[in-house]
């Protein structure tokens, strides 16, 4: 996997944790090992600009996804083709605030947001109740599996 991580925010980020998470998640989703992914951490002003430009919504948001080759998850019998998944943009300052509200660490929140963004890159959505159930269930499975893998 080619996973490029850029931290353009003022918040220190454990880039290795995100590298491990995405490698784990892409493997679980049977994505081709030559797939490319970008993750960018930006400050609130940059995220607000992206949020307005691409979603036509005011204020910064927590995560945005920009898919490229419209790849979808593979199966145990068939991986996705190699390609460019796209970019995930995370705002650590928004994640820190959400983590406080949710009662977990900023790292846990940013890992959750990254997983959420990755699933969007792979075509998952949560606009409808059945889509939300599928996406959030898969998100939970990936994060739990990753946590277990990290402990062993």
Automatic annotation (TrEMBL):
<dbReference type="GO" id="GO:0008270">
    <property type="term" value="F:zinc ion binding"/>
</dbReference>
<keyword id="KW-0540">Nuclease</keyword>
<feature type="binding site">
    <location>
        <position position="120"/>
    </location>
    <ligand>
        <name>Zn(2+)</name>
    </ligand>
</feature>
<dbReference type="InterPro" id="IPR002036">
    <property type="entry name" value="YbeY"/>
</dbReference>
<keyword id="KW-0255">Endonuclease</keyword>
<dbReference type="InterPro" id="IPR020549">
    <property type="entry name" value="YbeY_CS"/>
</dbReference>
<keyword id="KW-0690">Ribosome biogenesis</keyword>
<dbReference type="InterPro" id="IPR023091">
    <property type="entry name" value="MetalPrtase_cat_dom_sf_prd"/>
</dbReference>
<dbReference type="GO" id="GO:0004521">
    <property type="term" value="F:RNA endonuclease activity"/>
</dbReference>
<keyword id="KW-0378">Hydrolase</keyword>
<keyword id="KW-0862">Zinc</keyword>
<feature type="binding site">
    <location>
        <position position="116"/>
    </location>
    <ligand>
        <name>Zn(2+)</name>
    </ligand>
</feature>
<comment type="function">
    <text>Single strand-specific metallo-endoribonuclease involved in late-stage 70S ribosome quality control and in maturation of the 3' terminus of the 16S rRNA.</text>
</comment>
<feature type="binding site">
    <location>
        <position position="126"/>
    </location>
    <ligand>
        <name>Zn(2+)</name>
    </ligand>
</feature>
<protein>
    <recommendedName>
        <fullName>Endoribonuclease YbeY</fullName>
        <ecNumber>3.1.-.-</ecNumber>
    </recommendedName>
</protein>
<dbReference type="Pfam" id="PF02130">
    <property type="entry name" value="YbeY"/>
</dbReference>
<keyword id="KW-0963">Cytoplasm</keyword>
<comment type="similarity">
    <text>Belongs to the endoribonuclease YbeY family.</text>
</comment>
<dbReference type="GO" id="GO:0004222">
    <property type="term" value="F:metalloendopeptidase activity"/>
</dbReference>
<keyword id="KW-0698">rRNA processing</keyword>
<dbReference type="GO" id="GO:0006364">
    <property type="term" value="P:rRNA processing"/>
</dbReference>
<keyword id="KW-0479">Metal-binding</keyword>
<dbReference type="GO" id="GO:0005737">
    <property type="term" value="C:cytoplasm"/>
</dbReference>
